[in-house]
Specification:
Keywords: Signal. This is Exo-alpha-sialidase. This protein is mainly beta. It is 5% helix and 39% strand. Strands 2-1-3-32-31-30 form a six-stranded antiparallel sheet, with no helix packed on it. Strands 24, 25, 26, 27, 28 and 29 form a six-stranded antiparallel sheet that branches. Strand 25 and strand 26 form a beta hairpin. It is globular.
Length: 481
């Protein structure tokens, strides 16, 4: 058995092994010179850990992950991930395919996980049943400041565009107060009846099928406890732990027309959305421009701040929207990440005054890496206020990429680490079906966050183009300095 085949065998635990808590300890991420299959008791806290969260067989693909760390317990980590049957058939009837949202929770710092398919909690809603909302996509997970877990996804009709019901969906939310042991029945986050005056649904309509739902997300303000449910550029707040929701708004600012909305965040009473503006009210700007919209009244009104102009960043790629993260430890501290103008790397924009001024840091791709395109970028904060960034570097070979992570501290980027022990390649089955050609069956996100000791990265991984799984990497922050 050659080294590459042996490495693939070692880093691909079976579903049974995942259930039993088997992890992979990597002494050097990205080098793979010493790789062992180990239980948590076999390795020390200084080692990197790589865990296969989804444990798929070849007929499934898992992408679109998120990861979050509890603010009250550094050892509690949650990963949201999606499982699809391959090839993807978005017009399949009920029970003819798997399109499910999962949440896996660890209470031992990411060594072992308890998994829950949260899709049945969404189907249990009577309205969801009547509307045929059967499948789930775009999973997400976040913690409240008290440690409760919020999770959700975009649920949508079976039969797609071929059934009797119009294709539609809802942004759904469920909550756990016992670290994922039990979950509440799902409820809608976005409701047409609660749209702000003058706001309309998808394509300007107000029929049930116009309810915003795709690309859902959820997050909490770690200071105020306000929970936000989003779908695209629609956002709604809840001040009672997702029991009820207020008015649905959009982060619109006069004179700053949006050409692409980004991933929102919140902290210290400030809701923030990065976006790409086709024009601004700032004299002399050359757009498209990167901007941040902020709100201090839970999304009722917004103020726009200029981050960068057209020559400074790229708006192309599989994931074209900017991503933002908030520092829970310091008010007004936000980070926004986008691509460099040549699309070969990523650039982090950092503000410490809620968007009025910005500093820029560009992490370096490791020397010798044959990257021709940067993509699937994201940003997060450690518990003590340092910035983390993750992205993919795609290579000339079709569907081939590596995953990189870096730490930004005191305005400087540390060592960039290659998280994936060997190159990922999209499996052939992801190119078939009707869910896009060459996007890994809906591979749109990589995710990163951290506590005071580790960075946690959730990413798709398919070495040898064999099986597409969701993995979690736990990387000591000390290795990223």
């Amino acid at each position: 058995m050659d080294r590459q085949r042996a490495l693939r065998w070692l880093i691909r635990p079976t579903p049974l092994a995942v259930a039993a808590g088997v992890a992979v300890a990597l002494t050097t991420l990205g080098v793979g010179t010493h790789t062992t299959v180990a239980t948590a008791s076999d390795h020390g806290s200084a080692q990197n850990v790589l865990v296969n969260i989804s444990g798929n067989s070849a007929k499934f693909g898992s992408v679109f992950p998120q990861v979050a760390v509890s603010p009250v317990d550094d050892d509690t980590v949650a990963v949201a991930w999606r499982q699809y049957t391959l090839p993807v058939d978005t017009n399949a009837p009920k029970d003819a395919r798997t399109a499910a949202c999962h949440v896996s929770v660890s209470t031992d710092a990411g060594r072992t996980f308890k998994d829950t398919d949260i899709t049945p909690y969404f189907r249990a809603d009577p309205d969801a049943t009547a509307l045929g909302l059967y499948y789930c996509n775009a999973p997400w997970v976040t913690f409240g400041p008290d440690g409760r877990i919020y999770a959700g996804g975009s649920v949508f009709t079976a039969n797609g565009t071929t059934g009797a019901l119009p294709k539609q969906g809802r942004a759904m939310v469920t909550v756990s107060t016992d670290n994922g042991t039990t979950w509440a029945q799902g409820i809608w986050g976005i409701d047409l009846a609660k749209l702000a005056p003058g706001l309309t649904g998808l394509n300007g309509g107000m029929a049930p099928q116009d309810t915003p739902w795709d690309g859902s997300n959820g997050f909490t303000d770690p200071t105020t406890g306000t929970f936000y449910s989003t779908a695209g550029v629609y956002v709604v707040a809840s001040d009672d732990h997702a029991g009820t929701f207020g008015t649905v708004n959009q982060p619109n600012v006069a004179g700053w027309p949006r050409s692409a909305g980004g991933t929102m965040t919140a902290a210290s009473g400030i809701l923030a959305e990065p976006f790409v503006a086709s024009a601004t009210t700032v004299a002399g700007t050359h757009c498209p421009c990167l901007a941040l919209a902020t709100s201090t009244d839970e999304g009722k009104t917004f103020t726009a701040h200029l981050i960068a102009q057209a020559a400074d960043f790229s708006t192309t790629g599989t994931t074209r929207y900017p991503v933002a993260a908030a520092d829970r430890s310091r008010a007004g501290h936000f980070a926004v990440v986008a691509y460099t103008a040549d699309h070969l790397s990523v650039r982090v924009y950092i503000t410490t005054d809620a968007g009025r001024t910005w500093k820029t840091v560009t992490p370096r791709t490791p020397a010798g890496e044959p990257v021709v395109n940067a993509n699937q970028v994201s940003v997060g904060y450690t518990a003590d206020g340092r910035v983390l960034v993750v992205w993919r570097g795609f290579h000339r070979d079709q569907g081939a990429f590596d995953t990189y992570a870096a730490l930004v501290d005191n305005g400087h980027a540390g060592t960039t680490v290659k998280v994936s022990p060997e190159r990922s390649v999209y499996p052939p089955l992801t190119y078939l079906g009707n869910y896009g050609d060459g996007n890994g069956a809906g591979d749109f996100t990589t995710w990163i966050t951290g506590n005071r000791e580790y960075a946690y990265i959730a990413f798709p991984y398919s070495p040898g183009a064999l099986v597409e799984d969701t993995y979690l990497a736990r990387v000591p922050l000390s290795s990223l300095k």
